[in-house]
Design a protein that fits this description.
The complex is a heterodimer of chains A (256) and B (499). Chain A is mostly helical and 256 residues long. Chain A contains nine helices and four strands. Chain A has a domain of 150 residues: Cytochrome c-like domain (Cytochrome Bc1 Complex, Chain D, domain 2, Orthogonal Bundle). Chain A is 39% helix and 3% strand. Chain A is elongated and about 125 Å long. The chains are: A mainly alpha (256), B mainly alpha (499). At the A-B interface, helix 1, helix 2 and helix 3 of A face helix 1, helix 7, helix 8, helix 9 and helix 10 of B.
């Protein structure tokens, strides 16, 4: 490829027609020659309205940042104290009502997977050696007070069948349990895995169980079969709830 | 003294001409194939937009379903047109600013072909159904290393030239272009590695994807276009930049603010609560670097309105800068959480904003640069001022309508989507008239770019006018519609005596 530079030294060779070569340079670089030089010497003052406009936008951006909560806190995925608002039009007034047995069981199944699943298994059958089965167990499906005391305090020694499983100790599970949690998990176990008492352990009953458990003689110690059979062979006090009563699945309170 | 000055000017012109000549092949390749991809992209855009309102259109062909054509349309626009136009402008402008001929034009041209190959395979992959489904990253995942390697082979020479430049001051365009050249691989590698190589939490992956899109706009296309505009306007008008310190401020504001933007698209998603707000605030603050740069450029050029009107370069560049102002205002109004963000988050106004950024701002400045660069590297003047005018008017009206319609239509659609107790078809119904209009307008933009592509191809074949007079957009009945007849240079046999 020929370089345009070869025409830029027209004087070197006398056979070159200087005018002609010069004209060629002028033509070849015509577009380049008519360009202006860049200059950075502009020092006009920035118009005030530009600064004002930018300032207004910075205020808006600051307002947005102000709503961002704690910056760089990677643990919060929602605003502190956030409550879901009602939908426009007001047609959304919380979750849809559900039949009591289904609603309590749904809540209970979550508690079960968190607290019970590890030992008694996803099918509630235990393993036969270390952990007993909950299916058809007298302590589970008979009087609800027995079942509540075992969940809340744990049990040591033999169980309803007289057999001792493993080391003979079930640790208490009551720590942090709300009445709703207890009501849910009891209803769930009493109506699943083949158990079907058909009744709902209500929140009121669960509350009574928590009180009972706290006021036991040997509060804080695990219960034994003897204690259960002697003192807790009754249903939990409280009004029965029909299994098809419509309740709020979140709070388990009856709904119209 | 005066002869010395003219001698210097002449040497200067010769040096510029030799730089232009050394880059003729890669630059013309990038610009022309970019323009071809732009035409392809717009045709795909027409098809995909038509499917929004007429689902039966071309429904027999699996290759042309909406999910594929829309992705191919956007990716062809970004990687086919946007990047190649940017490459052409970057390698040329940085050579000029470093005052050196390019010694690696063969390698750049080869790498440009590799890039083109990567884009072609990617687009075919999308149309064949192998797209990844990640917005702007739909190319099948084997494409990105190809693009990355060819990218380095294309731009590294400009960095070398900068390193060995003659002593001197670094001009604002160099700041912008060099920054874009360095930011792009950071953004590209980060996003692709985190999404393709070591995929993590899928919710965060969507966030990274949104950040990638936003970063390509704000950290690549915006600085390239601003650097170009800061070069072109003083070059054509001969005026110094209105306020050079404001230009420097704008650069640093862009650099500091824009990497935070993007994740507001995930407002309400289970990611750390502050992130979308940070993204929204940063996107709103885009106004500051954008508006200050736009005012700076406009004030530089506006001192001579006639020149802006006559010079194709300035006319397109100014249109792009006005597009930047609209984009900056839109960035504020579309991203206010709790007010507008929920309407724009999942609707076509996001698309409207992207088209505004890529076409309404970036592409217009690139068109301006192309009208400036091509006569220099081919040493032929643009053939027809009518073609330029058609390109300009169809593009300007087209982009104004598309951006306005998509942004407002998107808000309408968003309002429809927010009413979640209504059937989804209501939201689609709200968007319907806007979608029809968008198809219609894309069609005009397509016409405009067919003119442009043909004109550019003719220039590439060096069939442009041989003249020392630029093709200006002067109106009136005097003279030829194809510009002033200059002294026709038939390889130097006639001296340029007339002027």
């Amino acid at each position: 490829m020929s370089s345009p530079n070869q025409h830029s030294k027209p004087d070197l060779d006398e056979t070159i027609n200087v005018t002609r070569a010069h004209g060629r340079v002028a033509n070849e670089s015509a577009a380049a020659a008519r360009e202006k030089h860049l200059s950075d010497s502009g020092h006009e003052s920035v118009p005030l309205w530009v600064i004002t406009a930018c300032g207004v936008v910075l205020l808006i951006a600051g307002g947005v940042l102000g709503n961002a909560g704690t910056l760089f806190s990677y643990n919060n995925t929602f605003r502190e104290g956030y409550v879901r608002g009602t939908a426009p039009g007001g047609s959304d007034s919380g979750p849809e009502a559900k039949a009591a047995l289904a609603a309590f069981s749904a809540k209970g199944s979550k508690i079960y997977s968190a607290k019970c699943n590890g030992c008694h298994g996803a099918d509630g059958k235990g393993d036969g050696a270390n952990y007993p089965s909950l299916v058809g167990s007298a302590f589970v499906i008979e009087e609800s007070q027995k079942f509540a005391m075992i969940i809340l305090n744990g049990i040591q020694g033999p169980i309803s069948t007289g057999k001792t499983y493993g080391a003979g100790i079930m640790p208490p599970q009551g720590a942090g349990m709300t009445p709703e949690d207890l009501a849910g998990v009891m209803t769930y176990v009493r109506n699943n895995f083949g158990n079907s008492t058909g009744d709902v352990v209500t929140v009121e009953m669960a509350k009574a169980a928590l009180d009972l458990s706290a006021s036991r003689e040997k509060a804080g110690q695990s219960v034994t079969s003897e204690e259960i059979l002697a003192k807790h062979k009754v249903m939990l006090p409280g009004e029965q709830m029909a299994p098809d009563m419509m309740v709020n699945p979140a709070t388990l309170a009856p709904m119209e | 003294m005066s002869s010395e000055v003219s001698q210097n000017l002449e040497q200067d012109a010769v040096l510029r001409a030799s730089i232009d000549r050394s880059l003729r092949h890669p630059v013309m390749f990038f610009l022309t194939s970019g323009a071809a991809w732009l035409a392809v992209s717009i045709i795909l855009g027409v098809i995909s937009s038509a499917k929004v309102h007429s689902p039966g259109f071309l429904d027999g062909c699996g290759w042309l379903t909406y999910g594929r054509t829309q992705a191919a349309h956007v990716n062809a626009l970004i990687y086919g047109w946007g990047f190649q136009a940017a490459f052409g402008v970057i390698v040329w402008m940085l050579s000029r600013l470093s005052r050196q001929e390019c010694r690696a034009s063969g390698i750049i041209l080869t790498a440009g072909h590799v890039w083109n190959f990567g884009v072609s395979i990617g687009i075919l992959g999308i149309l064949a159904g192998y797209g990844t489904g990640m917005p702007w990253m739909e190319f099948p995942s084997f494409c990105w290393p190809v693009l990355l390697l060819s990218y380095f082979a294309i731009v590294v020479w400009s960095l070398v030239q900068f390193k060995v430049r003659p002593e001197g001051h670094v001009y604002i365009s160099q700041w912008y272009l060099m920054a874009a050249m360095i930011w792009f691989p950071w953004v590209f590698i980060t996003a692709n590695v985190l999404l393709h190589v070591i995929p993590g939490n899928p919710v965060m992956a969507a966030g990274i994807n949104a950040w990638y899109k936003s970063s390509l706009i704000f950290l690549f296309f915006t600085p390239v276009a601003l650097g170009t505009a800061f070069y072109l306007v003083p070059k054509v008008s001969g005026r110094p930049i209105f306020s050079y310190s404001l230009a420097q401020f704008g650069f640093w504001a862009l650099a500091v603010i824009m990497p935070w933007a993007g994740m507001q698209k995930l407002t309400g998603a289970p990611i750390p609560y502050f992130i979308p707000y940070l993204g929204a605030a940063a996107t709103i603050m885009f106004f500051v670097p954008a508006f200050s740069a736009a005012v700076n450029i406009l004030r530089t050029a506006i001192a001579d309105p006639e020149l802006v009107n006559h010079s194709p370069t300035l006319r397109f560049t100014m249109a792009g800068v006005i597009g930047l102002i609209v984009m900056a205002v839109a960035a504020v109004f579309l991203n206010i959480p709790g007010k507008t963000l929920e309407f724009t988050q999942f609707s076509m106004s996001g698309y409207g904003f992207e088209i505004l950024a890529i076409y309404g701002f970036f592409s217009f400045v690139m068109f301006g640069a192309i009208y400036f660069i091509v006569p220099r590297v081919t040493r032929r003047e643009w053939l027809s001022r009518r073609l330029i005018k058609w390109h300009f008017f169809l593009s300007v009206y087209g982009i104004v309508f598309i951006a306005v319609i998509a942004i407002f239509g998107g808000v309408q659609q968003g309002i429809g989507q927010e009413a979640f107790d209504q059937p989804w078809s209501e939201a689609a119904q709200r968007a319907f008239p806007y979608a029809v209009f968008i198809t219609f307008v894309w069609f005009f933009i397509m016409l405009s770019n067919v003119f442009f592509f043909l004109h550019l191809t003719v220039m590439w074949l060096r069939l442009g006018r041989r003249s020392t007079h630029p093709t200006l957009l002067v109106s009136g009945h005097h003279g030829s519609p194809h510009g002033e007849d200059g002294d026709i240079d038939d390889a130097g046999s006639i001296a340029a005596s007339a002027h």
